[in-house]
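Running this now, will post back.
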Amino acid sequence: MKLSVLDQSVVPEGSTPATALHNSLDLACLADRLGYHRYWLAEHHATPSFASPAPEIMVARIAAETHRIRVGSGGVLLPHYSPLKVAEVFRVLGALSPGRIDLGIGRGVGAGSIEAHALAPGSSGGGDDVDFPGKLAELLAFLHGGFPEGHPYARIQLMPTAGAPEVWLLVASPQSAELAARLGLPVSIAHFGRPQVTRSVVEAYRSAFDSRDGARPRVQIGIGVYCGPTDEEAQRIFASQRLFRLRMGHGVLLPLPSPEAALDGLRGEVEPLAHEVAEWPRCVVGDPDHVHKVLTSMTEALEIDEFMVLSTIHAPRDRMRSYELLAQRFGLNSEAGGDESAAHA
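Update: finished.
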């Protein structure tokens, strides 16, 4: 089983967005040493909660500071951008870090309607870009030279000529999964966003997959993980995410609170996910053995190729420890070959 990291560059309460970006650099270097397979950066705009609206910049910096881990976007929100420009940016990244760059493409807006309109003034700003399949096909054609003869873009020669990234489609519905399947693309399923539909999305993808070009279906699951040395410690660090989600449900997007502030703020509140029903939880919270058991059961049931682990934890030290404990329990190939967590004990 491959384990990877999804980083939203969350801003901890009491810190700054600039510090959050440096926290991402530190975590990426640790993930590289621990043996994680990929490190993806999310895209969010104009919110105090997340510090990175430009994952391509973070991809360049992290790829330059790491050695073996794949680095990419999770994802570039294509409705905002020109397919040609996205293709050019990621070809440059691919040329600078050959064989290590991923281009995860998302359909969402990662912003409010006003911000979305400011990013792409000609769009509706509603996040449901009706021309998304066309833009995605155009992007793939730019990357792989797939325009038919006579197409006005067929004569465009992208620079650099080498360095095409591996393209993934971020999906959260059977319809998006079927689009990826028709195009022969691997999928990253946002289980942490809509856990109730995960099985149906996987099944729709596999049943519709087009393998005429020799490609095979590949399924990556994005899931929240909050791992501590004990269940009690895992629940403590998870409190920050609980209050964050409660606030988000009320339309309030603030920096991530500390566990202590979160536990205080949660008193007397009815949490929106307290009674959520899903085959597997959107966030796995517990000690390493518990996390291993849940992820293994999902792998066996859905034939998953990879987990993209999202850990929205207030203290960088606690976030690093969560990923360290996970790497140790799953036996990842650590570059250091020793006990990484000792450095953060």
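The beta strands are 2-7, 38-41, 70-77, 101-106, 166-171, 187-190, 219-227, 283-286, 306-310. More later if anyone needs it.
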